[in-house]
Write a structure and sequence with these properties.
Elements: E1 4-9, H1 13-24, E2 29-35, H2 39-49, E3 54-56, H3 59-63, E4 70-73, H4 78-89, E5 93-96, H5 104-115, E6 121-123, H6 131-141, E7 148-156, H7 171-174, H8 178-181, H9 183-193, E8 199-207, E9 238-245, E10 250-256, E11 265-272, E12 275-280, E13 283-290, E14 293-297, H10 307-319, H11 329-348, E15 352-353
Parallel strand pairs: 1-2, 1-4, 2-3, 4-5, 5-6, 7-10
Antiparallel strand pairs: 7-11, 8-9, 8-15, 9-10, 11-12, 12-13, 13-14
Helix pairs in contact: 1-2, 1-10, 4-5, 5-11
The protein binds nicotinamide-adenine-dinucleotide.
């Protein structure tokens, strides 16, 4: 079997903890090259993969390496669209970490580059690939929840600011705070489970109250990104909002890196005419009614799964024509339109029509 030859660009947290270990277990992938502006990170990548890799400090050189079939982008957000467009033009398949891009203008460039190429472009949607999400998706598809007409989703942290002062908290490099960082995960899953209705209007508010907070983190998820003493913090730490869809459905959203709540949670809750669901990454419960009685359905057993690894394998399967893509860049364009419009609504104080 011919292996897909992949080069990974950006060897920080997500590459080190998630992508590289996942690729190492895949029989149809060979990691051949690595790229980072910090050379020691490429050595770490080599150690994780367990054999020598071509090392590039300039991502353009990796993109132009004829020996590589596909590029995996694990850099700060602002580079996603720039690298993806160049890689597609150089005839490479592209897998990219979330968020798709930092603005609608940039994500549309990705869409155009993907349309002009016959290569695969896929952006990480790891939650869709969790076993809990797959169950709920099928349950809704089977019509068992009836018409889904509203929902709530969020990822709220008490203290969990990634890389304070570094690229995560610098708008020009990240595109925003928890709304773009965490919102893309949960809003995507909610909309996916709802059957991809088209967003038509949003409103939202954002706050920045914890830029100088000194409390220690209580979130295992804040290990990402390098902190920078006296760096920039010009993004929100909390976003609240409301999205309306063309089918009349609505979604309430809530995302924080820091806020005074009991504890961190991430959730999608959907309500349908026949049933409702409360989902978290490793569990779910369904609330319904049968023969005049209210019933709850709860799964048994261990439901922990690795959605990131499953998403990466899905990308490889799509490239190898073994699977139809469950993500298309049009969904990414809609996602970034929503996020940008929430920032716009927060700025103007008005609802924004999409
Ligand atoms: N799907 C998830 O659950 C998840 C979790 C964490 C992060 N992410 C995403 O992954 C991406 C990376 O996040 P991270 O936490 O690994 O950040 P990080 O800062 O730890 O890693 C980014 C790496 O990119 C490198 N880099 C910066 N500019 C570069 C350039 N021009 N060329 C090559 N390398 C360059 C940096 O040196 C660093 O090693 C972000 O887009 C983030 O949103 C996704």
């Amino acid at each position: 079997m011919k292996k897909l030859r992949i080069g990974v660009i950006g060897n920080g947290g997500i590459a080190k903890y998630v992508h590289l270990p996942a690729y190492k277990t895949m029989s149809d992938v060979e990691i051949v090259a690595t790229c980072d502006i910090i050379p020691s990170r490429m050595d770490e990548a080599e150690q994780i993969i367990g054999h020598s890799l071509k090392k590039y400090e300039n991502y353009e050189d990796l993109i132009n390496d004829k020996d590589i079939d596909a590029i995996d982008i694990c850099t700060p957000n602002y580079l996603h669209s720039i690298i993806a467009c160049k890689a597609l033009k150089a005839n490479k398949h592209v897998f990219c970490e979330k968020p798709d891009a930092v603005s609608v203008e940039e994500v549309k460039k990705m869409e155009k580059a993907a349309k002009e190429s016959d290569k695969v472009l896929m952006v990480m949607r790891n939650n869709r690939h969790l076993v809990t999400a797959k169950f709920v998706k099928q349950y809704i598809k089977d019509g068992k929840m009836g018409e889904i007409y509203c929902g709530r989703c969020g990822w709220i942290r008490r203290r969990g600011i990634p890389g304070r002062g570094g690229w995560f908290t610098t708008k020009a490099m990240s595109g925003g705070g928890p709304l773009i960082d965490l919102g893309v995960h949960m809003i995507d899953l909610a909309i996916y489970l709802m059957g991809n209705p088209k967003p038509v209007a949003v409103s939202g508010s954002i706050y920045n109250k914890f830029a100088n907070d000194s409390a220690s983190s209580d979130s295992v998820h804040s290990v990402f990104g390098d902190a920078k003493q006296d760096g920039t913090f010009d993004v929100e730490d909390l976003a609240m909002g409301f999205i309306k869809f063309d089918n009349g459905a609505c979604l309430q959203i809530e995302f924080s890196w820091a806020s005074n709540i009991r504890e961190e949670t991430n959730f999608v809750e959907l309500r349908g005419t026949k049933g409702g669901v409360s989902w978290s990454p490793n569990n779910y419960a369904i609330f319904s009614e049968e023969n005049g009685q209210l019933i709850d359905i709860e799964p048994k057993g261990n439901l922990v799964s690795n959605g990131h690894a499953a998403n990466l394998q899905h990308f490889v399967d799509v490239v190898n024509k073994k699977a139809e893509p469950d993500y298309v860049i049009g969904q990414g364009v809609n996602m970034i339109k929503i996020l940008e419009a929430i920032y716009e609504s927060a700025r103007t104080g008005k609802e924004v029509l999409l």
